[in-house]
Specification:
Blueprint (H helix, E strand, L loop, with lengths): L3 E5 L8 H8 L7 E5 L2 H10 L4 E4 L5 E2 L10 E3 L9 H6 L2 E4 L11 H16 L1
Length: 125
């Protein structure tokens, strides 16, 4: 989609090149991939670049469809199983949720990322 992909270690999946290549199939070479050794390195990078960190969370109150994205925003997703630590919630410039129907709790991370990134790109053109 022409955006930068940040991977913050430790990730909830293997981040070696062969695993990413298998998951990304023919598209990995098109990805603008940035790896961060840990969360501290990531948040330092984002703040130094003046980028807002927008956290997707089931614990948030604001729907992603009611948020105004900026071109420089970083959309952050945690692990499907455990989300993110409290410190990450505190550091985030905004926390957004995807409204769910009925008793559903959450969606697959790739689906969440695609939905929210699609809306962000729609807004910023």
């Amino acid at each position: 989609m022409g955006t930068r992909l940040h991977i913050v270690k430790p990730a909830g999946f293997r981040t070696d090149d062969s695993n990413l290549k298998r998951a990304g199939m023919d598209y990995l070479d098109l990805a603008n991939l940035v790896r961060h050794d840990d969360y501290s390195a990531f948040i330092t990078y984002a703040k130094a670049a003046g980028q807002r960190v927008i956290l997707l969370s089931t614990k948030a109150d604001t729907a992603y469809t009611r948020f105004s994205f900026l071109p420089s925003d970083i959309i952050l997703l945690g692990r499907e199983s455990s989300g993110v630590p409290d410190q990450v919630h505190q550091d985030a410039d905004a926390r957004l949720t995807i409204p769910m129907h009925g008793k559903a709790r959450s969606l697959n991370q790739a689906v969440c990322a695609a939905m929210v990134l699609g809306e962000a790109l729609r807004q910023v053109g």
